Amino acid sequence: MNKKRTIVLLLGLIFLFSSGVSSQEQEKKPHHAPNALPGVEPEMLSPEYWIGRMDNPDEVVMTPSGIERLNAMLRTKKVVFRERFGRSDPLERDFALDLKKGLIMNPLLSLELPETLPGDSLRVWLKDITDFLYSRDFYDNRNVTYNEDMRRELVEKMNTYAVPDVITRRYGIIVNHANMRFFPTHVSGYSDTQWELDHFQATGVCIGNPVAVLHQSLESDFYYVQTPIVRGWIASRDIALASKTQIREITDDTNFLMATGDKIPVYGDPACQNFARYFYYSATMPLIRHEDTGFVVKMPLRAPDGSLDVVNGYVKPDADVHVGYLSYTKRNVITQLFKLLNKPYGWHDQDNKRSCSGTMRVLIRCFGIKTGRTPSFLLSAPDHQTYIDPSLSTEEKMAEAAKLEPFVTMAGTPGHIVLYIGKGHTGKLYFMHQAGWGYEDENGEHLFVNRTSINAADHSWYHINSPRVFATFRK
């Protein structure tokens, strides 16, 4: 009997222990933040709410010709940093490092670059990115630190020894939504073991972008290219090589279809049964014709020999698309951004998602505005900038921000960028943005946001004390 009691007691203890572990595990599970974050009313999660708070929602903020003048200015604009409020310029942080890694402040016209490039220039660029590889720890998909052998393998794949003294640029066009990588690999290089921030990822590149090809990896599976906004490695399968004339027939066609939804399927047959590829938010494809059955576009492909082929692509008639760029109005801005509401975060656009700056960059590209990729580049782009004194009180910062023009003003620092959307009926100021973190609630529990969302400027997720620079995109 004693033996039986002992067994029962042990079983009971095991049950209690396992229940406690289960309870603890339950508590440790991540929790999502509510759809409407603290300070956000449910009706605010609709573009109509914010359109109703606009004075002139359909006023054209900049005409197409004005936008083209802005784009031309951005291709040559010199950014000058100076001390502000007794501190260094807030946009200066990481600016030089970003340029050294291959990010481009002044968007390039890839097809207008010189025909040749000194090989030493490319060797320096590859040396800079090699230095970045050895500057810190990186972790692969197994949460294993990159060791010396793994780093050496990446360096060998860059094929630096094959760089000639004089490089003759080849030219190509992106044929799939592509990932630009700092190294010729699809394997991730995470910053730590807890957050999936792939520091080998440079940016996402939309279909139809022209590129200048400078080099190829040891196995020829990656090209080192110059896109309009980043220099780095793209899988060769995503690029078709062609003459500049062939590429311009696609990139310079002013009659185009633009994706105004998150990602739009393109099909290989008129019945839209055979999926071909997606073209993503703000990407364009030349329009052949618009019929009752849908849209017919020119779809660039990579032929088996790596050259450019162009075939008809088909888009459904009810797809979220627009012929040409959208008119740059506040109604269109907020309507477009709300199409990305709750879309998940992706560091540097990894996994075909978007980061904070990736979201803002493709948002304004829907109107034809073309900028660099990072928050600093975006905030440096327009001439209308307001710097907030960090020594001001929270109330004073709120008052300064309230003077600015909502819906066409971005705010932030080198680490993050948001769209300022103004004052709600609550009297609070609000931001809309894509961010990869969460916040602690009143019980100390971490709530994950990690998506495009709206937040009140008095909430900790992104407080009014965070942005230092407000940049207004208007003439």
Question: Any overview of this molecule?
Answer:
- The protein has helices at residues 2-28, 47-51, 64-74, 95-101, 119-133, 148-157, 244-251, 330-338, 356-365, 375-380, 394-402; strands spanning 31-32, 116-118, 166-168, 170-174, 178-181, 201-205, 210-216, 222-226, 231-235, 239-241, 256-259, 263-267, 275-280, 284-291, 294-302, 308-315, 321-323, 384-387, 409-413, 416-423, 429-435, 438-440, 446-448, 451-456, 469-472.
- It is an alpha+beta fold.
- It folds into three domains: 31-81 and 326-475, endopeptidase fold (from Nostoc punctiforme), CATH 3.90.1720.10; 91-252, SH3 Domains (SH3 type barrels); 256-323, SH3 type barrels (Roll), CATH 2.30.30.40.
- The protein has a six-stranded antiparallel sheet with strand order 18-25-19-20-21-24. A five-stranded antiparallel sheet has the order 9-8-7-4-10. It has a five-stranded antiparallel sheet with strand order 16-15-14-11-17.
- A hairpin with a 5-residue loop joins β7 and β8.
- The chain starts with a helix and ends with a strand.
- The model is unreliable at 1-26 (pLDDT under 50).
